[in-house]
Amino acid sequence: MLNISGIENGVVLDHIPAGMSMELYRYLHLDKLDCQVAIIRNATSQKMGKKDILKISGPVDHIDLDVIGFLDHKITVNIIKDNKVVEKRDLELPKKLVNVIKCKNPRCITSIEQELPHVFFLADEENATYRCKYCEEKYSKKK
Amino acid sequence: MLRHLLNPMDFSVEELDRLMDLAGDIERNPDKYAHACDRKTLATCFYEPSTRTRLSFEGAMYHLGGHVLGFSSADSSSAAKGESVSDTMRVISCYADIAAIRHPKEGAALVASMKSTIPVINAGDGGHQHPTQTLTDLLTIRSLKGHLDNLTIGLCGDLKFGRTVHSLIEALSRYEGVRFLLISPPELRVPSYIREHLDKTGHYYEEVQSLDDAITSLDILYMTRVQKERFFNEEDYIRMKDFYILNKAKMALAKEDMLVLHPLPRVNEISVEVDDDPRAVYFQQAQYGMYIRMALILTLLELEV
């Protein structure tokens, strides 16, 4: 059994599907932050069997909750202050994504103008389908 | 208020009606509008060749008494030096009162509009949208049929990359009782977002391959060209380009009052023998294209005559 201590101030992302924590780490650009990050993989979970957990120490303003909602809206977000959970945030599919996913349409203007932000809008909530703001190319989370 | 035309859906049905009424008045009373755009300048920013659309815009502005400046290929613009569309449009905003942009990349007109201080008209962005062609098509149909609802329209040819088709379907889907027959080879079917759109609006549509079978029930046949520049692969283009050819024999199967439209230029998908058929209205359509662009320029510049 591995023991990792709690954090005083920060955010704990719980109930991450096992194996997804590194993907989340990259999407949240945690490698660029100068704070302590604990990645716990394959922790035992009654609900999920196995799960990943991310503990991020420090201010939470820079954490893009939309990205987490996009990756998996069932992930639990716990905001920690003075060693206590002060808030649990519910996530949903974000209506708009900026620079989270890239448009892969070779005919899209973003393919030649590198400085343009890659913006996607939620087109169909039921099927978790997003469309590029510029060319309307589809991006579906469902494989 | 600064307004652009990027997508045919940018105008409400009521606004489209007003625009088409204005185009009709311009057609009947051209002299009345001959100086409506005195001292106004249109910039035509064409990053890919398009003689027809560019000349239609230029003709429209000249008939309104205005001026035109611009470029007709990316090579002759600062894009060749690597300037972004957004920067180019900010500069052009200093020289002109209104701009029409054509670009091979999808979404380029939207990008142009984001930093522009003058109205931007999308004159075609890759395989995506071509709203002024749609306005032309709507005006042609309304002028010659008298209405836009309760029509059966067949769209034939390249429905995948044919941006005029996408725009027209979206625009006509706002009218009741319009039925769509989407006639194409399987490789050139309409993109999924168009099918999703029609599913949402509840319009009847059917995807078919045979023009002969479909033509008998049509009120409008909208032919399109298979465009070489939309293919990455020459072999695919050669395989697709002769899939549909409208000729006298096929026209004999159609209703007596069916209209044949085509955004032009036509290559070989409509045989020249069809040109003399009174149902072939694609050259009239080009004339309507100039009237609707005149009406659009006046509307976006908020000029009243």
Task: Describe the model.
- The complex is a heterodimer of chains A (143) and B (305).
- By secondary structure, chain A is mostly beta strands.
- Chain A has two domains: 10-89, Alpha-Beta Plaits; 96-140, Aspartate carbamoyltransferase regulatory subunit, C-terminal domain (SH3 type barrels, Roll), CATH 2.30.30.
- Helices cover 10% and strands 38% of the residues of chain A.
- Chain A has a five-stranded antiparallel β-sheet, with helices on one face. A four-stranded antiparallel β-sheet of chain A has the order 6-7-8-9, covered by helices on one side.
- In chain A, strand 4 (76-81) and strand 5 form a beta hairpin.
- The radius of gyration of chain A is 17 Å and the shape is elongated.
- Chain A starts with 9 loop residues before the first strand and ends with a strand.
- The mean pLDDT of chain A is 89.
- Helix content of chain B is 39%, strand content 14%.
- In chain B, strand 6 (179-183), helix 7 (192-201) and strand 7 form a beta-alpha-beta unit.
- The mean pLDDT of chain B is 93.
- In chain B, the strands form two sheets. A five-stranded parallel β-sheet of chain B has the order 7-6-5-8-9.
- In chain B, helix 1 (13-28) packs across helix 5 (131-145) and helix 2 packs across helix 11 (282-300).
- The radius of gyration of chain B is 19 Å and the shape is globular.
- The longest helix of chain B is centred in the C-terminal third of the chain and has 19 residues, at 282-300.
- Chain B folds into two domains: 8-129 and 289-300, 3-Layer(aba) Sandwich (Rossmann fold), CATH 3.40.50; 131-286, 3-Layer(aba) Sandwich (Rossmann fold).
- Chain B has eleven helices and nine strands.
- Chain B is an alpha/beta fold.
- Chain B has helices spanning 13-28, 51-63, 85-95, 108-115, 131-145, 163-172, 192-201, 211-215, 234-240, 248-251, 282-300, and strands at 41-46, 67-71, 98-103, 120-125, 152-156, 179-183, 205-208, 220-223, 259-261.
